[in-house]
Amino acid sequence: MSTSVFHPKDPDFHSSIQENLKQLSAQLGSPLDESSVMEIYQDACDLLSHLSPSLLTLARVAGTLLVYRVKDTEVEESKWFSSQVKQCLDEEEVEELIESISRTDAL
């Protein structure tokens, strides 16, 4: 599948994802400050710490967490997503999870 390119100590990587999260929050009508963006990014890193995700997977998890926050999603739904990510055995399962929650015909 995809090769892991997860480099948490790369400052360019950190700033790129965080800047994208900040822009996305503004586009969604709920601009977030730097500390909120950093918190979401760190939460995504923590959720994926048991894997070696690609940059895209990390960005997608962070983006999902961002949407949960700015759209005032119920806390239980956000907790459910986080627990599901923690249970994923590989990056492919994480991607499938994200795809399943974004489908309108999931149920």
Plain-language structure description:
It is a single chain. The protein is mostly helical and 107 residues long. It is built from 5 helices and no strands. Helix 1 (11-27) runs parallel beside helix 3, helix 2 packs across helix 3 (55-70) and helix 3 packs parallel to helix 5.
Short account of what is shown:
This protein is 67% helix and 0% strand. The chain has 107 residues and is an all-alpha fold.
Number of helices: 5
Radius of gyration: 13 Å
Task: Give me the secondary-structure category.
Answer: mainly alpha
Largest sheet: none
What is the average per-residue confidence, as pLDDT, rounded to a whole number?
A: 86
The run of helices and strands is: HHHHH
- The share of residues in helices is 55-70%
Low-confidence stretches: 1-6
Tally the beta strands.
Answer: 0
List the defining traits of the structure above:
single chain; 67% helix; disordered N terminus
Describe how the helices and strands are arranged:
Layout: H1 11-27, H2 34-47, H3 55-70, H4 75-87, H5 91-102
Helix pairs in contact: 1-2, 1-3, 2-3, 3-5
